[in-house]
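ARCHIVE CARD
Drawer: 12
Card no.: 0347
Subject: one protein chain, sequence and derived structure
Cross-reference: see card 0346
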Amino acid sequence: MGSRLHQDQRGFTLIELLVVILIIGVLFAIVLPVFLNQRAKAQDAEAKAAVHMVETALIDYQHDRDTFAGADRDALAAIEPAVLGVPPFTIADADADGFELSVESKSGASGGGPFIVEHSGGGSSRSCATPGRGGCPSSGVW
């Protein structure tokens, strides 16, 4: 009876185990870049939201002072305290009529940033530095 149990025992061969490990490795190699791209897109979306928040605070600043000149992080934080939590941003060419706002993304080189808003004469245009990468559409306009 003991020998009968020994003959009925089954297991996986070394080849079968190696094939399963190989399949798991191939699936992992496919999924990892997709996951990393989604992470960059999420970080870019956060930067776009930050641009919008700072842009709104800048417009409120202009309504109070009739100019965009002099707007900085502290002045905008007095209007919208959440500006203090925004990633580093720069405001360039700020005058009575417009400004250029740029916000970096946490995704760095793997993302589409920096994300830029140019505001002049009451209208805004939005662009990003690396079209087709991260959260930056292939047109370069968001």
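Annotation on reverse: The helical segments are 2-8, 14-65, 73-79. The first helix runs from residue 2 to 8.
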